[in-house]
Fold each of these.
Amino acid sequence: MTGKLYFFCGKMGAGKSTKSKQVSIERNAVLLSEDEWLAALYPNKVASFQDYIHYSGLMKPLVRSHVQRILLTGTNVVLDFPANTQSQRTWFLSLASEVNANHELIYLQVSNEQCLRQIAKRRAEQPERAAFDNEEMFNHITQFFEAPDSSEGIMITVVSNG
């Protein structure tokens, strides 16, 4: 029996990282954070959105094999990596389906206003994130956001607030 893969969709500031920590505890799952992996594998390399895209893409093969090996042990995995476009969600779905693992996409449906409030709070608590945690970056990233749809073949749980 394989573990279950949990992954998240929500605009920047929607609370994906907070929710992923909660789900990992509730589901007794291994939590893997994209931010932590990027910081460990590519310290001080992510200075722009394009850098993020580049380095995030470089680590995908490692993440795929690592997560699949964990799932095959019967252990649940929570990926705190964005599934904010159909293309990203297709990658997560293939990651699970290649090892016959169940999956669940948790979609945090949060208003832009609430996201911006949470980003401002995070920026105040973590000043080192000020270069990315701002309204300009939120607006830039949000233009790529695609809400999930049941036609994608993904098990979706919607959590609405804000």
Amino acid sequence: MALTRLDNLYRQVILDHSSHPHHRGTLGASTYKVELNNPTCGDVIHLELAVEGETIKDLAFTGEGCSISTASASMMGDAVIGKTLTEAGELSQLFSALVQGQEVATSDRLGDASMLGGVAKFPARIKCATLAWKALEKAIKDDQGQATAGQLHHPNDTNDTSQSLDQ
């Protein structure tokens, strides 16, 4: 019975983030923009970051996605704002391991995003859950000078930045 109550709590938190996502919208001044899509189900995210020094000061996202994708993006924003790029990258790797069913001892660092661990039982939904986190990883790689052309751009860049999650 207690497990059922816990499952219901997890579902309610996920539904709340999906229905009322945190950080949905655009930033007035962003340092980086990334667009990523999941061709399997059609989810698309446009992620904007405002980075000062090594710290993520703000984050916003728009796009179309299922409830898991939207909730995950909302939870990711809560987890990484105020973190350094290195810390955000570590959280992204931790999240990826969690939703793939790996044992993660420090999932509490993920905040509400740790509640998406149950996605591991539904392999088709893993890409939905990780879409926003993969976009974040692309931004972090670019900020460290490791991205390839077309992955990410600065706000005034007119190059096409759309990329598939499968790429």
Amino acid sequence: MSSTLLVEDTGVPFDELQAEQIARYQTAWAQTGWQREPRVSVSRSVLPIVSDEDRAYFGGERSSEDQVGILEGVRARFGKSYVGEPDALAEDLAKDAAVQEADTLLITVPNMLGVDYNARLLENVVRHVAPAIGWVHPDQR
């Protein structure tokens, strides 16, 4: 599981740096001789704007680019938040190198907005973003 923070900054965009780490992990796994495939998950903040309420909360979101900062004295790179119309989010996620390399995408939610809001947010990801990327619900396979 790799989150939206890496305590490494080589100047490479977050998703590419994370994809490099995934590749190194998979190589190390293969070198051990284990027979099964390793599972890899990454997390992203995905906030589709499909209502006035979403727009009120996130319409002015400015973290659509990687952020670099110092965390406990270490230079760190923070992944961007994916905020916007579902078709634009789908396009951006389809270009995210680490999302494409991972087996699982963990969607982070703004827990301070409560269960009901986050249930709708996740429903909007499932209904509007996932199909545009080609993700299929396991029940639909």
